[in-house]
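User: Teach me something about this protein's shape.
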Amino acid sequence: MARGTTVDGWGRVLAAMLLCGLLGACREEQPPLVGSSSQVRFSQEALAFPATYVGASREASVRVVSAGRSGGRVAWNGVQGPFSAEGLPPEVRPSEEATVKVRFAPSAEGAFSATLVGTDEAGRTVTLELSGEARLAPPCPMPSACHRFRFDSGREECVEEVLEDGTGCDPGNACVLDAVCQQGRCKGRERVCDDGNACTTDVCSPLDGCQSVPAPPCPGDGACQEGWCDPTRGCQSRPARNGTFCGEARGCDLADVCVEGTCVKRDPPDNFVCAPASPCQGEGRCRGSVCERPPARPLVPDWTYDAAAQEQKLHDLLVGPGGDVTLAGFFEKPVLDAAGDAPVQAQVTGRRCMLWNERLLCMDLPQQGTVSLMERATAAPRWSFTLGRARPDIARQSSTLFMARLAVMAPDRLAALFEAYPAGQDSRTQCRLYYLVVLDAAGGLVSAQLLEDPLLSECNHPHPFGLASDPAGDLYVTFSPTVNPGAPLRAGAPTLVMAFSSDGVPRWRRTLPFPGGELGLVRGLLMPEGGTQPLRTSDGEPVGTLPLKLGRAVATHEVLVPSPAGATVNPDVVPPESPRLEGYAVPGLEPEWTYQLPAGMSFVSKELRLGAWPEGGVKRTMVLGFAAEGRQPVLVGVRARDGSEAFRCELGYTPRTIPQLFELGPGSLTMMDGATSCGECDPPFSESRARFQRFTLPGLEPAEAPWPGTFGGPGHDHHEDPVRAAP
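Assistant: First, the predicted structure itself:
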């Protein structure tokens, strides 16, 4: 025992030493271990969030554990937005772990980062690096009437919603007033047009509102009672002029003529009209017992436009209701009012054009994936619709969007069939996507859908070779594989027929065993060009079988006339002998009549049109076609009612090819020849530099008939006209 130290003293020293050791009360102050590593750890060093749309959020979990034998308290720094953390433990015990939820909820676009830091009692830190990218929400599709799209940030997709009933809406139709939403459709009351004149027909244009046009001629009441119109009382009748032809007998010794309102047989006087005029020959008049007629003269063009001389690839023509001619070509600049005094060439190119609501409608003008409506005389734009802008979701599925076909469904409904390469593929691919889009008269979107079928899934460039609609606005389209990769496309077999309602709702589909082609329609019958069996529009079932292909048929409400057997429009095909036209009753398809050309003559072009020609004061519906004896084309007119010949007129010009395309206007026939590529492909005659000629034929008019030609008559609108045909 040391000197001077008592037992009690040593006890006090030991007690003090023990107290200092346990409590650390006797240790000197030490600086904190700044920057040293804590025994507390995150289960990972960094957390990177996937790209997140602004307004959405993502959540992830990490674990906090202690690697030491003893736990400890941890102070956390609390990260700033757009990051947040929940469940950070204030204390971590040994062999335990805590789950922390980290959220990334950006409110602005950009790249963000932050560090979540925890500090233990010894000043040691634990860190978790946070990062995330924020993107703006993608644009949603343009809404159709009574629908809206919004981006659902939770689902990260655009969702469509139906507007509440009673919400005001734009029907895209100037003939619908006070429109509101009703079960997702925009409906209103019909605008009534009445100018107070019984001798006009008051119509409402979906684009322009009320208009008045001359009413059709008033019908007579009996053979010798002619109709006339009183502006106040409407149609009236009165006795026909004495001497008016009224029956079958029309000789110069005996004729059926009107006398005081009654049809009687008389010996007609000299100068009596004993033979009607034709486009190339004046009427015959009696001189004694002989019906004398002036000699026939060839029809000669009064206007010619040679696209080859102009170095323009023009191979299509449209004739407006006023007789104006528009020339177009595959991705060429259309020439408007080409036969007028001051033709106008559009400043941009289009793929193909047609007429709708008195205006010119062009595909891919001015850019691909666009439909544009413009004035026929000036090319001034009325509206444009671009599918990629209206439906960005469709644009993301496609590397390129462009137009395939157009068809009128109604004055306020347009069918636009868009074609596309699948996303990630270019023009070298033979795979295709097709979108059926329905637009209203103002270019507003009604519906859009991807068309799907095993035939369309084959990578053999499936293509719509036919498109047509009926008076109800229902749509029919035929798809076929192609046998060549580049335009103009030739159709292979089989043919897929798809039917849709006027709103684009699928109705039925059918597969046919022959190559595709154009479509025609009449009274519930669908006429595929390559088949011999018309199909019912209600269900696609065949109705009867004809002895020849339908071809590019024409039809009144009573008679269906297929193309002449063997005739063609292709410049490299010599047609076989085809001297007949045949008429079949509709809808029963019983044989009605056969027209036979004189010996040595054959029809050379499968293109037919229906025109109206005056005979005896009555407009008669004629089937017009081109025949030839040798190389010189002859215009043939056959009465649609009974198949009798009305006229044959030689065309006085030097042909380059057979007549390949023609359209009728008021008092005129405009024809195309000289195209060098396929006319039974799509697009017809693509890349050709054709020649266009107009023949003035006073009295000839386009017929008011349900299917007056391959493309639906003047304008290529592919729509069955519900107006009743002339006699």
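Now, about its shape. Helices lie at 7-23, 387-390, 392-397, 454-457. The first strand starts at residue 40 and ends at 42. If you'd like, I can walk through any region in more detail.
User: That's plenty for now, thanks!
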